[in-house]
Automatic annotation (TrEMBL):
Signal peptide: none annotated. InterPro entries: Fibrocystin, PA14/GLEYA, PA14_dom. The keyword Signal applies. Pfam families: PA14 (PF07691). This is Uncharacterized protein. Keywords: Signal. The keyword Transport does not apply.
Amino acid sequence: PPTTPGGTPVTPPAPALPERGVTMEMYNNIPGMTLNRLLYNKKFRSKTPDSTRKIPGLVSPLNIANNYGLRLTTYYVAPETGKYTFYVSGDDQCRLSISSDDDPKNLRPIVQFKSGLATRPNEWNKDPSQKSAPMTLSRGQVYYVEALMKEGPGGDHISVGVKLPSGVLQRPIANNDVYIKPPGPIGVTPSTPEKGVTMEVYKNILGNTLSSLTTNPKYPSKPDVTTKIKKLKAPQNAGDLYGVRLTAYYVAPKTGTYVFYVSGDDQCKLSLSTDNKPEHLRTIVIFPKNFWTNRNQWNKHPKQKSRPIRLVKGKAYYLEAVMKEGKGGDHLSVGVRLPGRLRPKPISKEDVYVRPPAPGTAVVGGTTIPENGVTFEKWRNIPSKALSRLITDPRFPGKPDVSKKIRRLSIRPNQGNSYGVRLTTYYVAPNTGTYRFYVAGDNQCQLSLSSDEKPENLKILVMFPVNRWSSPNNFKQ
């Protein structure tokens, strides 16, 4: 290692962290409200903006000037794998483009305002031309993004939002996921989990029952206000004739039996998913009609609390709380009685997230969220029943024809002929003691187990003779 002249070892500097943010370029003195006036301007085509600066996210300052064009560029790191829908709010005409990777040369438009369209700030659903078609992105992959806006006279702004595969609406996109420079291929390294709660408000809705909110055309996809708050507690006495929805991912701080409570005015409902997916929500608390409580009053009525529910430490659960206010006082908060405790208390802000922590990400108190499952790899067109034909194939092990996640150490029978399969996983022993492993399969099979979590320490435990096989799940044939 390098040393000082006196012989003291020199510690090399830590690598610089990627810089989060968005580059904003401004092109002044361009009349007109259409993007073509910007795109064909000499300054824009020669990439010589009048000013360039960094902003924190994909949201421009409001009402900067008149007769100018704006270009926002950034590198977006997808926090999840699946279908994304992007949204643009802006005034005047706007366009959003995204690359298939981190190369700007691969940009393609996905949103373009129709001529004459302008929206208010954070107005996401005024016109269908504001949103993209669903598109698949991969968690941890870097994508280059460009947003353009051309301003004539009057108000001016642009912001970009997204609906994640998990169903979470980030409007605008979370600042944690955008970078000034490409952070480089980061594989499946997740971005930092974002603590907090998403609050959506639906204004000017008559009635004090939940049905008056849930049957309104605005609910749930067109809230009047979307914002982030710190806790599962809505502001008190915010108005009359409105509804509110709070959504978050709750990370259980302990394994055990939980009881959830709701305090609210007027009618309220609490739903909890069996995992981190909104589609698995089920109602666990619902107030009777015309029932309400004081702030943080947890035991006024038996319908305020859920039945006991078992949760697992470190696992993320999607949670939704809804309240419909008529007139008078209004509030909503969610509490919990933790395992081993006698009384409920408001859910801690340390345990709720706007975006679900990715599997393997450290969360509260060092708790991690392991990703259950098995990696399935398949190599096609390999004749013979002998394992040696798979192991000596030049594609094995690094170039499978199929690679995906499955739930168990078991594959669907009779998938075809002349192929090989490898299943890999990390097995967490549930007890201390002596174990015996069995294999059922057709044709020749082999099972290996490591002495720890390192693949290089694998040793063979089970090996079928050539031409031996068993029927499905027959472990003693």
